[in-house]
UniProtKB/TrEMBL annotation:
Family matches, as InterPro entries: Met-tRNA_synth, Met-tRNA_synth_2, Methionyl/Leucyl_tRNA_Synth, MetRS_core, Rossmann-like_a/b/a_fold, tRNAsynth_Ia_anticodon-bd
Keyword vocabulary terms for this entry: Aminoacyl-tRNA synthetase, ATP-binding, Ligase, Nucleotide-binding, Protein biosynthesis
Pfam family for this entry, one: tRNA-synt_1g
GO biological-process terms attached to the record: methionyl-tRNA aminoacylation
EC number: 6.1.1.10
Lineage of producing organism: Bacteria, Candidatus Kaiseribacteriota
Name the UniProt record assigns to this protein: Methionine--tRNA ligase
Molecular-function annotations in GO: ATP binding; methionine-tRNA ligase activity
Length: 474
């Protein structure tokens, strides 16, 4: 077994159905996890659901449900993404309402409190209910939160516990100054600039009377933990911290390589607040956090009011799991915002899957079925694309598709279907070369399109043309 590799997504709020943005993060993470497993690494791949906080409490009230009943229903929807998106069988799923997670959140609180980094004070500040976070006036755009421009900023005054974030300005800068702790590089500079501008201590609790749905603060029944403080702890609670009975925390977080995936709006939460919490608790920092952009639709941010929300399950139902995985890997930029429309998806599907890969597989396997015997499987070379090591899935997919196009061109140039009639020995050799290259392409596709990869390799082994992999859509 290779080296331990820990990978996690963020945890989505369960106040709405799964959307295409979270499908992007899950699929990208799954591709990375599969890639590392193929390299021989021992992978711990984590996702789950964030189930506390004011938004969820209010949603449950709106629907006339007990909060636990409400989050149970939505957690089941998110858990079902494992099969619906073709995710790895050994995916770990953590819920912030799990008893072991609550215990871990209380333990990290206690560590930070004992360090003198959590204190209580009265506070008045500007609050965004969308982010469930207090904001500086300088962070607002036209008086609104840039992440939730349609929501009103509310001034809140109450007595809460605070985390002494200012204390960690220097340690955070030392952490952030290491190349590679944030990908892409410009997000690292963004985090550095944020810290250099001066940090403010952040609230880590809410008054229980106003918001009872949260993890209880140790030794204070009047307060519950701020949802971010609670939720961020999932990255280690999923490993069994603090008891670590199975040794996963020591193996993967302390001795392994740790990578987190998150959206570009998460930099201050994941690379600043969470890292300061770890420092305060005396725990190792995350080694690398990879930030992706947003998916837009028709050049606009997706919203129900605009009617441009993309349901990933509708795409899967019509086109199949691997078609969606292909699009998210190759046609969504790994770090920048990218556009996704159903029309664009259909265009790409027909051009690159139906007419491209699907047609190529049919042509090659039709030739091998007619002219060659069975295939002896090749021990494929375990390639490590430089682009995958840089978390650039798009570049890795472009590399694979260039090989698909070259193989298509080789058929056009050598015309083995003609040569085999006049010179069977040479014709068979040409066809066998096509088959070997198709096998290697299928191997390279395994992390990205696992079912397609398996179907192609099974068909090559059986020496039989498969059913149409990607039927053309009119």
């Amino acid at each position: 077994m290779g080296k331990p590799f820990y990978l996690t997504t963020t945890l989505p709020y369960v106040n709405a159905d799964p959307h295409i943005g979270f499908a992007l993060e899950l699929v990208h993470a799954d591709i990375i996890a599969r890639h590392r497993a193929l390299q021989g690494d021992e992978v711990f791949f984590n996702t789950g659901t964030d189930e506390h906080g004011l938004k969820i409490f209010r949603k449950a009230q709106e629907e006339g449900k007990d909060p636990q009943e409400y989050v149970d229903e939505y957690a089941a929807k998110f858990r079902s993404l494992k099969s619906k998106l073709g995710l790895s069988d050994d995916l770990h799923f953590v819920r912030t309402t799990d008893p072991n997670h609550k215990a871990a959140a209380q333990k990290i609180w206690q560590f930070c409190y004992d360090k003198g980094d959590i204190y209580k004070k009265k506070y008045k500040g500007l609050y965004c209910a969308g982010d469930e976070a207090f904001m500086k006036e300088s962070e607002l755009v036209n008086g609104k939160c840039p992440n939730h421009p349609t929501m009103e900023i509310v001034e809140i005054e109450e007595e809460n516990y605070f985390f002494n974030l200012k204390k960690y300005e220097k340690p955070l800068l030392e952490y952030l100054n290491k190349e590679g702790v944030i990908i892409p590089e410009w997000r690292r500079q963004e985090a550095i600039n944020f810290v250099r501008a001066g940090l403010e201590d952040f609230s880590v609790s809410r008054v229980k009377e106003k918001m009872p749905w949260g993890v209880p603060v140790p030794d204070d029944d009047s307060q519950v933990m701020y949802v971010w403080f609670d939720a961020l702890t999932n990255y280690i609670s999923t490993l069994g911290w603090p008891e670590d009975k199975k040794g996963n925390f020591k193996k993967f977080w302390e001795k392994g390589e740790t990578v987190q995936l998150a959206g570009k709006d998460q930099v201050r939460f994941q690379s600043i607040m969470w890292q300061a919490m770890l420092m305060s608790a005396g725990l190792p920092n995350t080694q690398r956090i990879v930030y992706h952009g947003f998916i837009t639709s028709g050049g606009q941010k997706m919203s129900k009011s605009l009617g441009n929300v993309i349901d990933p399950m509708t795409i899967v139902d019509e086109y199949g799991i691997d078609a969606l995985r292909y699009f998210l890997a190759r046609h969504i930029h790994p770090f920048e915002d990218s556009d996704f429309t159903v029309a664009r998806f259909k265009e790409v599907y027909n051009a690159n899957l139906a007419n491209g890969l699907g047609n190529l597989v049919s042509r090659v396997l039709q030739l091998t079925e007619r002219h060659l015997g069975t295939f002896a499987a090749i021990d494929s070379v375990k390639e490590i694309f430089e682009s995958m090591e840089n978390y650039n899935l798009q570049a890795a997919m472009d590399h694979i598709w260039s090989r698909i196009q070259k193989l298509d061109q080789a058929i056009a140039d050598t015309e083995p279907f003609k040569v085999v009639k006049t010179d069977p020995e040479r014709g068979n050799k040409l066809i066998d070369e096509l088959r070997v290259e198709l096998w290697l392409i299928a191997h390279r596709l395994a992390p990205f399109m696992p079912n397609t990869s398996r179907v192609i390799q099974d068909a090559i082994r059986a020496n039989k043309k498969p059913e149409n992999l990607f039927p053309r859509k009119e």
